[in-house]
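Hello again, I could really use a second opinion on something today. I owe you a coffee for this, so here goes:
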Amino acid sequence: VQLVESGGGLVQPGGSLRLSCAASGFTFSNYGMNWARQAPGKEFEWVSAINSGGVNTYYTDSVKGRFTISRDNAKNTLYLQMNSLKSDDTALYYCATDDKVNTYWGQGTQVTVS
C-alpha cells in the first residue's frame, strides 16, 4: 500500500487549497479513505472520511461547510478541497486507509495558513 499526498503549501487566511492523495498497491475503489492532520503541539485530529463509492462523506465539526472530500476511483486518487482556510487549519495533512488489520498512512503534506 502506498499513499502519496500533495497539494499543500502556504496560503493566506480565507484562501483555498486542494490536497490530493495518490493511492497504489491495493484496490482503491474497495476502501473507505480518510484525511487527518496534526498541528504543531496539538493532538492528532481526524478531519474527514469518504466511503468506497464516494457517496457518503463525514467531517469533523471544525471543517464542515469549508472542506469537501471526494475521490476519483478511476484515477485512484483522493482529494480534499479546503476553502475559507484559517490559521487553525495549519497542520501536516495525511491521507489514510485501513484493511481492518492495519492502518496505512501517507507521508503527509504541509498546509500553512498565514
Summary: The first strand starts at residue 2 and ends at 6.
